[in-house]
């Protein structure tokens, strides 16, 4: 199953520190890890939520990854808006096992940036370049 995960700068950095092999553990106030089932919804979250959120660094990134269908089937699918807003709800305590089941490595599919003045300077993050998410071993490169 191909899944998408919108993330902010801090989560993207934590993924990078794992050599693109693991999503970071959830915070205590985050009991669910919820990748989404389509890229358009992930881009909407990255654009409409992450770019407006100081905790996300005012930037949104869409990562994608693949899980074996039989493994992914054990988790509940939740529709949280219209029918295209479908998420896979993974309990936080299952994230370490989920990370071990990911086929290939995580890739960044899309970057959404919003300029914000912080301390008199514009903050800008480099744009990662990816063309596909096909489960092959890839590493993140910044332009």
Description:
There is one protein chain. Helix content is 21%, strand content 29%. The chain has helices spanning 9-17, 39-48, 69-72, 95-101, and strands at 2-7, 32-33, 59-66, 76-79, 86-91, 103-113, 117-118, 121-122. A 3-stranded antiparallel β-sheet has the order 1-3-6, sandwiched between helices.
Secondary structure blueprint with pairings:
Blueprint: E1 2-7, H1 9-17, E2 32-33, H2 39-48, E3 59-66, H3 69-72, E4 76-79, E5 86-91, H4 95-101, E6 103-113, E7 117-118, E8 121-122
Antiparallel strand pairs: 1-3, 2-5, 3-6, 4-5, 7-8
Strand content: 25-35%
- Please give the largest β-sheet: 3 strands, antiparallel
Number of DSSP strands?
A: 8
The CA-CA distance between the termini, in Å, is 29 Å
Strand order of the largest sheet: 1-3-6
Question: How do the helices and strands follow one another from N- to C-terminus?
Answer: EHEHEHEEHEEE
Q: Supply the helix-strand structural class.
A: alpha+beta
Write down the overall mean pLDDT.
79
Q: Number of helical runs?
A: 4
What is the approximate shape?
globular
Radius of gyration: 15 Å
* Low-confidence sequence ranges: 115-143
